[in-house]
Amino acid sequence: MHEVCVHWAYGPTMDSTNEMPPPPPPSSWSAEQFVRKETLSPALSVWLQVVLYLAGTASALGGIGAFMAASAAEDFFSSSFASIDDWVAAEDFYTTSLGFFYLLSIAVFVLLIVFLFRAHKACTTIWNGPRKWSRGWTVGAWFIPIANAIITPMVWVETDRIASARRTDGRVGEDWRQVSFNKMIVVWWALYGVGQTLLFSLGGANSEDANLDDYAALMRVGGVGALLVGAASVLAALSVRRIGHALSPTSIG
């Protein structure tokens, strides 16, 4: 009777046949169970690519419109059959396209910073050793005049090397520094810089001092710049896709 009361009040007695095994010691637990794996959001990667492709298309259309405006201006002054309406329509086309591009550029700029920051953080899952560029550079490098043209792509290249290096048991070895870097990053950055510089010609084409020859020449130079920026946007999207795939939850997980 006493054993029945004890059993009812406290549960079964701890005899040799009912003894529960002790929990495993902490030393046998895997440390990976307590480490959160940082990954790169596929949605962020996809949205950034979409915005880059849209921006590249808008820039390319603006470049085509600039060439059309130059030709329409020459036709208007050289032919009695040419209408000024064609010239005005071409001007409206390139200004609208480039206006849409600069509007999208704001979103591209913000998303690129967020993407690079998240990619740098995700790389800590596969490589937690030292690297040249800390996480702060993924944001700060964009805001340093002149130097940002060199530092920012270097941060991208280092991140791409870690993300693309060969992994063993989900980890990257010391040899990631010898991995061939993604040359699209350098080409993208160079094309964008040159293209934006040439785009300033469009302002000179519409100045009061510009004659017809100046207008046509400067519009074509600006058109080339817009096409280069469009090509840079495509290469940037491909570079984002490469890093995004390498650091996705499926790849890291």
Overall geometry: elongated
Strand element count: 2
Question: What structural category characterises the helix and strand content?
Answer: mainly alpha
- Helix content bin: 55-70%
Protein topology:
Elements: H1 2-10, H2 42-78, H3 84-126, H4 137-140, H5 148-164, E1 167-168, E2 171-172, H6 183-199, H7 201-205, H8 212-246, H9 249-252
Antiparallel strand pairs: 1-2
Helix pairs in contact: 2-3, 2-8, 3-5, 5-6, 6-8
Written account of the structure:
The chain has helices at 2-10, 42-78, 84-126, 137-140, 148-164, 183-199, 201-205, 212-246, 249-252, and strands spanning 167-168, 171-172. The chain contains 9 helices and 2 strands; from the N terminus they run αααααββαααα. Helix content is 68%, strand content 2%. A hairpin with a 2-residue loop joins strand 1 and strand 2 (171-172). The protein has a two-stranded antiparallel sheet with strand order 1-2. The protein is mostly helical.
Task: Briefly say what this structure is.
This protein has 253 residues and is mainly α. 68% of the residues lie in helices and 2% in strands.
Core attributes:
253 residues; mainly alpha; 2 strands; 68% helix; elongated; disordered N terminus
